[in-house]
Design a protein that fits this description.
This is Asparaginase. GO terms for molecular function: asparaginase activity. This protein has about 160 residues and is an alpha/beta fold. The chain has one domain: L-asparaginase, N-terminal domain (Rossmann fold). It contains four helices and ten strands. β5, α3 (about 85-90) and β6 form a beta-alpha-beta unit.
Length: about 160
């Protein structure tokens, strides 16, 4: 069994035309999993519904507590990309579980999104990687504490 926690971020953003801005909405993760023909073998729980730039230290502690208390050895966390590395660093002490954080550079609701690929890649990675905390984005695996988001290039890279 794989535990999936959602925290919000771009992957779950919805465009509100009246305001001409994006806001975090309900997670599309169940639909993304279903479209990928993944119908069982996981539990889904929403922890937060925030843009990662709005996440606080107490929010990260909530994610850590949920992961620590989870009875699953394999966990996927959807997260906003801007502070994903910060949350991964907080989780890094959980060495007895395989924890994979992923997200999207474009909302899942948009036609040109990397969300479907990243979720599928995270699903595979969490089953194949040894215990530890990882960020998986756009076909690459990064260990917690050794990764940062390059805002200019809009991608993750090793530090």
């Amino acid at each position: 069994m794989i535990q999936i926690f959602t925290t919000g971020g771009t992957i779950d953003k919805v465009y509100f035309d009246a305001n001409s801005e994006f806001e975090v909405g309900h997670s599309l993760l169940p639909e993304l999993l279903s479209e990928s023909n993944i119908h069982e073998g996981y539990r889904l729980r929403e922890l937060l519904r925030k843009d990662s730039l709005e996440m606080t230290d107490s929010d990260r502690q909530l994610v850590l507590q949920a992961a620590r208390e989870c009875d699953c050895a394999r966990i996927v966390i959807t997260h906003g990309t801007d502070t994903m590395a910060d949350t991964a660093a907080v989780l890094a002490g959980l060495s007895d579980k395989t924890i994979v954080l992923t997200g999207a550079m474009q909302p899942a609701r948009m036609r040109r999104t990397d969300a479907v690929f990243n979720v599928g890649f995270a699903w595979a990675a969490v089953q194949l990687l040894p215990p530890g905390v990882y960020i998986v984005m756009n076909g690459e695996v990064f260990e917690a504490g050794a990764v940062r988001k390059n805002l200019h290039a809009q991608r993750f890279e090793r530090t």
